[in-house]
Design brief:
Layout (H helix, E strand, L loop, with lengths): L12 E7 L2 H15 L19 E7 L3
Parallel strand pairs: 1-2
């Protein structure tokens, strides 16, 4: 089967934009960093910088206790 690409549709990259208290974020990051100790992928290599996202679209989350 042959064909021509006539267009490339714009896509969105969805990501979580979570707002929590600083202390909660520190606790969560400590847990996540501990979890990464057991994997070949390091914590520093995990996040994707926004400059690499095509049409970034946040899903906003506000956490309340």
């Amino acid at each position: 089967m042959k064909g021509d690409i006539v267009s490339v549709p714009e896509k969105r990259t969805y990501y979580s934009e979570v707002h929590v208290e600083d202390e909660q974020e520190k606790e969560m990051l400590a847990d996540v960093k501990e979890w990464f100790r057991y994997y070949t992928l390091g914590f520093a290599n995990y996040p994707t910088p926004e400059k690499y996202l095509q049409n970034p679209t946040p899903i906003k989350i506000n956490v309340e206790r």
